[in-house]
Amino acid sequence: MKLITVFSILLLLSCTTLHSQLFVAYKATEGVSAAKKLSDASLTNSQLVGVVTLGDTSSALQLPINANFFDYTSGKSDGWIYLFRGKSKTTSSDTTLSIPIAKLPIIGFQTLAIDLPLSGIGNLFSKDSVLPNNFLESDKMIRNIQATADYKLYAKANPNPKASFVPVGYTPFCLYFPSNSPIWRLTFGGVGTNGTLNCEVHALTGEAKCTAIAVGVNEEISSQYLTLSPNPASKSISLSIPQEYYSPLLSLEVFNSIGVSMNNYSVSVGLNENITIPIDDLHNGVYFVKYSAGDIHTFKSFIVQH
C-alpha cells in the first residue's frame, strides 16, 4: 500500500473526542522503512542521519495535533521524525529531508503534512555520518537510562521526569563518549524540578551514562583545565584557565542541552586573564561550553537562569 498523507483525516477529526485515539504508538526503528521509501522519492542515495521525537509537550510546545509523544515506560511515541540526507532529484544539490511519520490503525505508517516546532533539527547531527538501521531501540534506551544510579536518585527527588526532546544520531557534541559518536541524548528537567539530569546512551553498545546538575547559587564548576563561574548565571560566565593549560589562541563553543551549537568564539587571551562569555541572549536552561586549545578539549555545563 502506498504511503498517503493524512492531513485531511486529521483536520476532519481534530474537533472530535476520537482525535487522541488516531495514533498507534511505536518504537523508533519501526518507522525507518516507511520513512526511507518517502526519502527515496525525493533524494538519490538517501541515508538516515538521525531520528527525534518530542519528550514533553505539556508546557513550552503548542502542537497542531493532539498526540501523545514519547512514553517513558514503553519507549514508544505517536510520532517520530526521520532525517535523511542525499542529492535532491530536482536540483541535484545536497539536501536534508525531515519526514514526520505516524502510525494509524488499519492504515499503518503514514507521513504527516504538518509543521512541528523543531527548527534547526538538522543541526543536532554530525555532517556526513550515517545512522545504521540497527541502532539501539528506543525502549531499550530508556530502560538503560532508568537503570543508572544517577537516574534513580534524580527520579526520587523529581518523580516522572521528562526531557523536551528524544534524539538519536551521530553528534559532534558528546559529554561521556568520543565526539561524533552515535548516541541517544536526553536532558531531564524543567519547571518544578530540582536541577537537571543529563543522559547519553551509546546507540550501538547500549552503554548509558547520566550526571545530575543541581541548581545552586553562585556555584563554581572546576576541573584540571578550567574554572567556570558563576553557576547559575544570567548575563555572563567567566572562565579561568590554569597556567599549565594556557594557550594564547583558543576556541570556545556553547551548546544547548540537546547538542545544538548556539555560539562559538575564537579568543586571544593573555596569561592569567579570565574569559568572559555573554549569555544574556540565551533562554533559561542547561548549556555546555566546549574549551579547545591545542590538544586539550573539555566540556563544562552551566545553567542560565534569568
Number of helices: 4
Q: What order do the SSEs take from the amino end to the carboxyl end, as H and E?
A: HHEEEEHHEEEEEEEEEEEE
How many structural domains does the protein architecture include?
A: 3
Query: What distance lies between the first and last C-alpha atoms, to the nearest angstrom?
Result: 52 Å
Enumerate the strands of the largest sheet in spatial order, edge to edge or round the barrel: 4-3-2-1-5-6-7-8
The biggest sheet amounts to:
8 strands, antiparallel
Q: How large, in whole angstroms, is the Cα Rg?
A: 21 Å
Low-confidence stretches: 1-20, 216-222
**Shape summary:** globular
According to DSSP, the number of beta strands is 16
Helicity range? 10-25%
| Content of β-strand | 35-45%
Tell me, rounded to a whole number, the average pLDDT.
80
Content-based structural category: mainly beta
Structural overview:
With 306 residues, this protein is mainly beta. It has 3 domains: 118 residues, no CATH class; 64 residues; 84 residues, Immunoglobulin-like. The protein contains 4 helices and 16 strands. The strands form 3 sheets. An 8-stranded antiparallel β-sheet has the order 4-3-2-1-5-6-7-8. The chain has a 4-stranded antiparallel β-sheet with strand order 9-10-11-14, with no helix packed on it. The protein has a 4-stranded antiparallel β-sheet with strand order 13-12-15-16, with no helix packed on it. It is globular and about 65 Å long. The N terminus is likely disordered.
